[in-house]
Amino acid sequence: MEKILLSHGGGGEETWKLIKELFFKYFSNPILESMEDAATLSVEGKIAFTTDGFTVSPIFFPGGDIGKLAVAGTVNDLAAVAAEPKYLSVSFIIEEGLPFKDLERVVQSMAKTASEVGVQIVTGDTKVVPKGAADKLFISVSGIGKIVKEGVSARNLSEGDVILVSSTVGDHGACIFALREGLEFEGLKSDCVPLWDMVKRLLEEGINIKAMRDPTRGGLSAVLNEWAQASNVGIFVEEEKIPVDEKVLGLCEFLGIEPYDLASEGNMVIAVAPEDAQKALEILKSHPLGRKASIIGKVKNQPRGKVILKTLYGVERILEPPSGEILPRIC
Amino acid sequence: MEKILLSHGGGGEETWKLIKELFFKYFSNPILESMEDAATLSVEGKIAFTTDGFTVSPIFFPGGDIGKLAVAGTVNDLAAVAAEPKYLSVSFIIEEGLPFKDLERVVQSMAKTASEVGVQIVTGDTKVVPKGAADKLFISVSGIGKIVKEGVSARNLSEGDVILVSSTVGDHGACIFALREGLEFEGLKSDCVPLWDMVKRLLEEGINIKAMRDPTRGGLSAVLNEWAQASNVGIFVEEEKIPVDEKVLGLCEFLGIEPYDLASEGNMVIAVAPEDAQKALEILKSHPLGRKASIIGKVKNQPRGKVILKTLYGVERILEPPSGEILPRIC
To answer: Which residue of A has its CA nearest to B46?
Structure first.
């Protein structure tokens, strides 16, 4: 197999060959290999269920690729509701002519990321569309997780809660931006990584997490504005506390955009009860994925539904929710 | 909103407007409207988990559209492992410029089909890609169902088992084929429909179902060949027993193709224990979706891994698994 052909999506012999020689090879597990129309799983109690489509362009970028992003992104959506990631489904939509080795590299990367988290890819589907009907490769992943702590929710914030981020903001967005626009910003790298292990530590230590969200499309501004509206509170954050990588800052200054609107793929925004804030910060900083964690602000009663940013100059201004489309196909 | 814009996939204000004004309007249920990164579900015992990508072109066709097909197809994959469909996730990948009314019509159709089955759409994602990076609309749907009868499996066939189909074969494939090739075959119509209610009847009546599969891509030939290989048995079917709509037969004769390779989307291939065959047939025939049901053949010990078709002329020949790609984007 040198290239993916329409017949690989036809449901006949070539499809089975692709499934056996590629997907079973890397995603190998007994549930997947049962080859039924649906996987059979045993679960008890409350589960979380999520889905995301990935259309990022280019499909390979510094720090990751569409496969790592798809697994990490889905795992992070489960982690954000305090759910242990257990099972994933994968739906590939492939443009005819995609080099087999590109697909293999993506599949390998998905398998590696899934195995690091301990999540199994148990069911999948592959469609191949004619040249020009899609751009290279789209992946939709759904995930099922076991909820470890109930009630973690955007509607859960109240006065005094403290807001943390586990890492720098905007790394993924800045990396894809520079790559797509052909800008030379040496060293920009996607932060794309599954965060479950870090979140698990917070839960094991009994931190009273009120809300979590990974700030992907729309970045930190989107998450904070959603929270302020969903919980009907005011959120105050201080610019000097928000960690931004120097190279990301450089790109933002060059382009005149805000890092708060740019996607992260390895960062978690976390709201905790005030008495747990310091402990949460220490746990995050002691974890390899949370070394750059920071307390960035807190929740107040007013102004309801709004986010206030205290700038480096000490001025307070509203941090608006992002609008328009800075860069399509960021994830 | 007249057309879908890139900003509708940006994760900011326009995305929220689309979610609230379109998806919440039609898919309305409390789980979806919690607006978290993942839906929280309560399930107990064995569940089935499946995913499918839908890339059918055109997105509207006689008998259905890509939305109805996506819900019905996923429901049927769950039904095929004897699982009651409970929850669906939906991932939309939309080409910039798609008329809003087209997306609305698809969403409405998904909501209607889901509601007929009693399945809830509880989580979703929307990506918009620039013009030319996708063709109109792709939908990936994942489904979770509650397994009602364990062990229904392609590996479960043994000598004497009886094979039934619940309806005519190839209707969906023939309809899309004619439409795409601009052939005038009056009255061809996709059979696209969710089959859970019919399967439920068989289960309620205690039919000993060994295996089930909806013959989509690759048609009846693909299903029977998979079964013969997975169970290491021979499968014998008689051409005169296999129901094929006259108009489908006409198209097949005109094109020189076999109806057994064409996709159905409202048909179930069912293997049952010999003593239950007549009762299963009666139950199917008494259901509105199974009026054209037929016993088409049986399972033997030899030739292992092969499907034998007795033609109308009384000749026995091997029914090969389909290969190549008759028509891309059939589902």
So the answer is: A42
